[in-house]
Amino acid sequence: xxxxxxxxxxxxxxxxxxxxxxxxxxxxxxxxxxxxxxxxxxxxxxxxxxxxxxxxxxxxxxxxxxxxxxxxxxxxxxxxxxxxxxxxxxxxxxxxxxxxxxxxxxxxxxxxxxxxxxxxxxxxxxxxxxxxxxxxxxxxxxxxxxxxxxxxxxxxxxxxxxxxxxxxxxxxxxxxxxxxxxxxxxxxxxxxxxxxxxxxxxxxxxxxxxxxxxxxxxxxxxxxxxxxxxxxxxxxxxxxxxxxxxx
Length: 247
Description:
single chain, globular, Umud Fragment, subunit A, 434 Repressor (Amino-terminal Domain)
């Protein structure tokens, strides 16, 4: 669950090692650049995959753990992980986000599988719609390092009101496809600027990111010709942080 920010998580983990708020001593002991880390923790620099891995190594914790305030399950252990039956609900899993498209009845699509989801993180009243929460695997590199390719995301289909900083499933009319992106800014109460989290210069030239940041119209149209582009909010990520080596 991604409630606490990555910066808060890093500060918390540094304090747990006994450094308190002394970033200078922490960086000196761990061989990190204190100025760079300080700028990042104060929001003056954006993080990237290399920085996340360096900080995680210094903290001696898995890199993916910095992205959540709840323990995450390593991708390699997903099939081994079990929860008490009374603690989870089984959520529909689809191999592609097509059922999230406008004009689609998701109940008409048979799921490819069911994946357990902790009940404590389910929104109140979700059972009034048995298909409120659905899950999908992610593809592409646009959301690295927050969401890695091959991760699984859970989406609340009823949480569609735009809020800056949140990650949503967006339906793009120009490509007739659903994509997972972060809502960066809402302009004039209508236009949503969306983008991936990946800031690698070479990756930004790829097909996954070459058209982003993108502006989409997030205003309801009475004529019904322009379906609401936000198809649900990402509420949980089972992150595959490190790609498995190719055989």
